[in-house]
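Record type: monomer structure entry
Structure origin: computed from sequence
Chain ID: A
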Amino acid sequence: MHKNIKYNSFCICPSILSANLATLGEDVNRVILAGADRIHIDVMDNHYVPNLTFGPIICKSLIKFGIKIPIDIHLMAKPVELLIKRSIEAGANGIIFHPECSQNVDKSLDLIKRANCQSALAINPATSLNSIIDFLDKCDKIVLMAVNPGFENQKFIPETFNKIKKLKILLQNFKKYKNIPIEIDGGVKYQNIKKIANFGVNSFVIGSEIFHNKNYHHIMKKLRKKLEN
């Protein structure tokens, strides 16, 4: 039986895809001081998604720099097996991957769990929720993509709200999984974060809304206040 991630309140996970890469360590440290809960690293391969970004070594570099809070590596790459191993070796606390990127989803999740990492499956807007049903017992959270993966600063797809509702119903039908946290990745802004939370979302991957703001403390405080009021 998996041990779900427990959130006392809402979890904000800044995505470094929108950070200042010229001074990445310092920029990540600034966002942590502003109140980030976890750091999110998007690994894209210019194959599964139409962009090429980081590798797991960025996680290792940030840890070496002195970053202490949990780091999630989101693998948008195919095949995913070798990158899971490299993410574990790099020191990731959590590994997220898309079920269609694995040759054997069950084995990939087992690999993550054996390394004492938190495991998550990510569901694209066009991907059926049925793709995760057989693997809920090995998931510490479910990530719903609110954009088509590949690029930063995209607009939130409104149909995501219906998908959140369907996922909540699915998890309720399997009562032992009803408390699995749901994370939204993509298009999360100050203007919509409260509405998203009201649908039962616990965790938010946020990129440009934070990193494109000159004052990280100010925007993080605004986001927290919006969530908690």
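Annotation 1: The mean pLDDT is 94.
Annotation 2: Residues 160-173 form the longest helix (14 residues).
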